[in-house]
Amino acid sequence: MHPANGAAKHTEREEVMKLYEWDFAPNCRRVRMFLLEKGIEIPKEECITPDIALKDPFLSKYKHAMVPMLELDDGVQLGEALSIWIYLEALHPSPPLLGTTALEKAVISAWERRAYDEGMIGHAEIFRNSHPQFVDRGLPGHRGPVPQISALVERGKQRVARFHKKFNEQLASNKFVAGDKFSVADITTVTVVDFGHALEMPIPDDCPHVKRWFDEMRQRESVQKSFPTHMPDGSPMPIAA
Ligand SMILES: N[C@@H](CCC(=O)N[C@@H](CS)C(=O)NCC(=O)O)C(=O)O
Prior knowledge:
Elements: E1 3-4, E2 7-8, H1 12-15, E3 18-21, H2 26-38, E4 44-46, H3 58-61, E5 69-71, E6 77-79, H4 81-91, H5 102-128, H6 151-172, H7 184-198, H8 208-217, H9 221-226
Parallel strand pairs: 3-4
Antiparallel strand pairs: 1-2, 3-5, 5-6
Helix pairs in contact: 2-7, 5-6, 5-7, 6-8
Residues 22, 25-27, 53-54, 66-68, 80-81, 137, 140 line the site of glutathione.
């Protein structure tokens, strides 16, 4: 599963891992980009219906009802992109994406969390509380109805504005989001910025440092190759990588 210098570098255990995902979902792209950076190949199964819902049998078998989810050969189910990264980084330490020293690990996890909280959740608030196919699905991971709250669209916009400002300041003096090395903090931030493009909320003009960083990120193979290829109904993505 790990083609390094032409030699397979994997264990029997990894042979039957399976990643359940949605091609167009930003949280799934966080894992896809990580796999591409590491050169790890894991079989994937897309479990989405054309109207953007989780499909059976995935929905019946995974009680947390969210993607991404990595299933191991013994049936252990790892949810949450962060947990999947931690597991895979332990198996495939090179290149390190979660940091190596105590300080690097702490700084990377802080910036990754800021990208997730301010950026991912901000965009998700806008998307889930306004999209017609998410009526009664205002939050992921809940089987019962979760009504949309229209006020959260405005709150999401304010959160996204804070995300751009905060990250513009950080990227003014740092090549990458968490300092001088590419890390999972960049991975989450790339997926957030492209989530914004999908929602027609581009990087604001007064955030030149985020633009500089994103132009550099776009040159990376993992960023290009992890970009969604199709919409939930199978039609091509309306926006390009
Ligand atoms: N905290 C989770 C979030 C996962 C999440 O929100 N996944 C969304 C897709 S991006 C999902 O599963 N949605 C299912 C649904 O809308 O029913 C993570 O970091 O992996």
